[in-house]
Amino acid sequence: MRALVTGATGTIGERLVRALGPDTIVLSRSPERAKKQLGVEARAWDGQATVDVDGIDAIFHLAGEPVAEGRWNTEKKRRIRDSRVLGTRALVQSIAAAKSKPAVLVSASAVGFYGDRGDEVLTEASAGGDGFLSEVCREWESEAMAAESHGARAAQVRVGIVLAREGGAFAKMLPLFRSGLAGRLGSGKQWMPWIHVDDIVALFLHAAHADVHGALNGVAPDIVTNADFTKALAKAVNRPAFFAAPKLLLSLALGETADVVVASQRAIPKKTLASGFIYREPKLEHALASLLEDSSNKSEKNEKSAQSGPGPRQTKR
Predict the structure, then answer these.
(1) What distances in angstroms separate CA 164 from CA 46, 126, 132, 202, 289, one per listed residue?
(2) Checking CA distances to 145, which of 38, 94, 109, 136 falls within 20 to 30 Å?
(3) What are the E-state strand segments in 187-256?
(4) What residue ranges define each of the domains in the chain, with the CATH number in brackets?
(5) 138: enclosing H helix or E strand
(6) CA-based angle 115:157:51, to the nearest 5?
(7) Is the per-residue pLDDT at 298 higher than 70?
(8) Whole-prediction pTM value?
(9) 62 confidence band (pLDDT: 50, 70, 90)
(10) Rounded mean pLDDT of the chain?
(11) Among residues 61, 73, 311, 83, which one has the least CA distance to residue 207?
């Protein structure tokens, strides 16, 4: 499969490119940096221009302004929306113009589609919620589905909180938990849809190959509350987690972004499971153990490398 990937230098994107192989093409604002990082062909893309997709089998669209980094203001919100909505629109226009069209467009979306829904069980068939991020996700998915009117199947993966040791929320949480300075966020009662990074990458690939249309919830079936997640991670690193971050404190620190942090989405992967997807890490306890084991192995290798030094010097003769 010859694939085109946007957002390829991110946590999910980099792993996806490596899984797809050396024939992958990536679009990037910094193509030289992307080529050096990923070792594949990289083309310049400003996120809004149409591109040549002739001969491409599948497009994976992961690009988007980070949502949880920095406070939201008018300009930040514009970048969040435009990077998703206008970027997806440009890719669909590219599909429409192609003579040899891609068979499928797999676009990222987010569980933020559902808004803050308390204890309501949410499947892929549930309606969208209220708020800025929900509105962006609805527009984002609508633009992606337009690919079907041009002969390409369209699937959207509503990504939950991705657990990965090398980036994202988990990488930021782990040092705090290991130092015993972590705790629940807000009330802790909010549902926290998570997924192991290996599973979210596998799900993007599954969406490209399986006969699925529309949204798939990119979350693990073992959904937990923030309080439960906090206890599980604290237990996994053998540290207490007494501290708590009240919503008022989060709002002062993060502004409107705090609403996303404490939003409750009890999203279950009903359609994802029905499509035949098999999780590698369906249980939180095992997923955390896997990530921590990988992290420990990496630390041991770095320590041994540092102790061994650069090795003997070769003298010129």
Answers:
(1) 27, 28, 26, 14, 12
(2) 38
(3) 191-192, 194-196, 214-218, 224-225, 243-245
(4) 3-295 (3.40.50.720)
(5) helix 132-145
(6) 115
(7) no
(8) 0.91
(9) very high
(10) 91
(11) 61
